[in-house]
Description:
This protein is an alpha+beta fold. It is built from six helices and 16 strands. The strands form three sheets. Strands 2-1-12-6-7-9-3 form a seven-stranded mixed β-sheet. Strands 4, 10, 11, 14, 15 and 16 form a six-stranded mixed β-sheet that branches. Strand 10 and strand 11 (151-157) form a beta hairpin. It is globular, with a radius of gyration of 17 Å. The model is unreliable at 1-12 and 15-19 (pLDDT under 50).
Amino acid sequence: SNLIDDRQTLRSTTRLSNSQKDHITELGNKKPANPFFFLKPPSSILLKGDGPVLRPRGVNVHYEVELGLVMGRKVRDLDPNDTQGALDSIESYLLTIDMTGRNVQEEAKKKGLPWSIAKGFDTFLPIAGPIAKSKIADPHNIELFLSVNGEMKQNDNTNLMLFQIPRQLADISRVMTLEKGDIILTGTPKGVGAVKTGDVIRAGMRVDGKEIEEANIEVEVKDREGPYEFAET
Length: 233
C-alpha cells in the first residue's frame, strides 16, 4: 500500500491517553473522566526497515504498544453512540509503539509545562501495517503484545480500553477535525518500561489466537547523534 510508504499521506498523528486501567495504576495517575489526547508529529513515524529507535542523550525511553487507527475520511463532531459510523470512518489498522521520554515527561508535568518533546522525538513512533479491516472483525478484541530482548513485557486485550473507539473519535472530533490519513493511537496496556541502547523490541497482535503478520515490529534501540541532551528546564 502507498499509505505506509508515504509519510505525507499520514498527515498527523493523534494519540489518546486512553490507557487501560492497570497502566494508569502503574504510572500513579488518576482515571480520567473523559478521554485526554495529545499530538505526536509525523516526523516521529518510524516505518519498517527505516532503522532503529534513536535514544537521545539523557532520556529515559519507555515503550507503549498500541492499536493504531488510520482515518479513511474527514470526521467532525461524531456522535459517541454512533458505533457503526465510527468504525466505518476507519480505513485500516496499524500496530504501533508509542515511545516516550519518561523523565522528560515527568519533569514537564511537575512544572506544569507541555510535554510534546517527550513524545515527539524522531523515531518515537514505530508502526507496522496497514492491516486490512477484513482481518479485524472487532477492534475491541485484539491481543497486543511486546517483548524486550525476548522477555514478554506487555500482553493484553483491547477489550480493556477505558474508552472504546467511538467515544475516542467523538471526543477528538469535537475539538479538532480528523482528516483522511490521520493516525489515532488508542491506548496501552500495563507493563510499560524502559529500554536502553542495544535492546531489541518486538511487538505484534493476535486475533482469535492467530498472529497478524502485517503487524509484526522488530526494532533495535541505538544512541541518537547530535547536539541534544536532556537537561532540566
